[in-house]
Design goal:
Helix content is 71%, strand content 8%. It has a two-stranded antiparallel sheet with strand order 1-4. Strands 2-3 form a two-stranded antiparallel ribbon. It is built from four helices and four strands, in the order H-H-E-E-E-E-H-H. The protein has two domains: 117 residues, Non-ribosomal Peptide Synthetase Peptidyl Carrier Protein, Chain A (Orthogonal Bundle), CATH 1.10.1200; 33 residues. Helix 2 packs across helix 3. The chain is mainly alpha-helical and 154 residues long.
Length: 154
């Protein structure tokens, strides 16, 4: 019975639920970025590069084998580097978005922790010690001045 209770406590904790929400939001965000790359970013790049569709770029290692009827007996073997280019661009966009979000949170966190760099008022005992020090410096300075004056009179 203790094992089931421990599992229930673990599964219902806020961290697990927060993680689940994060995964769901992340999956939805991934779809948005995929659409951004495939539908908005890559078409102009394809236009600039002469109408190249990056998703279809590949290096064929072995051609597909067809029988007499035209049915595929063996699939083609290829390196799909165009798809890799798309996914790399998606990764860069996601990494940049996460960077901006984390930077924003860190900035807000820093502002919350550092209340406008206001200095705390100096405690009374420190003020008193500072006054005593200044008075002692004044007496020492006046004695030095007196000694110098008597030396000059001689």
């Amino acid at each position: 019975m203790g094992f089931i209770k421990e599992f229930k406590d673990f599964a219902v904790k806020g961290n697990v639920i927060d993680l689940a929400v994060g995964v769901i939001i992340g999956a939805a965000f991934g779809k948005i970025v995929t659409s951004l790359v495939n539908d908005i970013i890559m078409p102009p790049i394809g236009l600039v590069t002469g109408g190249i569709d990056f998703t279809n770029l590949k290096f064929v290692l072995k051609q597909a084998v067809l029988d007499e009827t035209g049915k595929v007996v063996s699939e083609a073997v290829s390196i799909n580097y165009g798809s890799f280019i798309n996914i790399t661009i998606q990764f860069i966009i996601i990494a940049f978005c996460v960077f901006v979000i984390v930077k924003g949170f860190n900035s807000l966190k820093k502002k919350a922790e550092d209340p406008k760099n206001e200095e705390a008022p100096t405690p009374k005992d420190i003020l008193l010690l500072t006054e005593i020090r200044d008075l002692l410096k004044g007496e020492t300075s006046s004695k030095i001045d007196e000694d110098q004056n008597t030396a000059n009179e001689d």
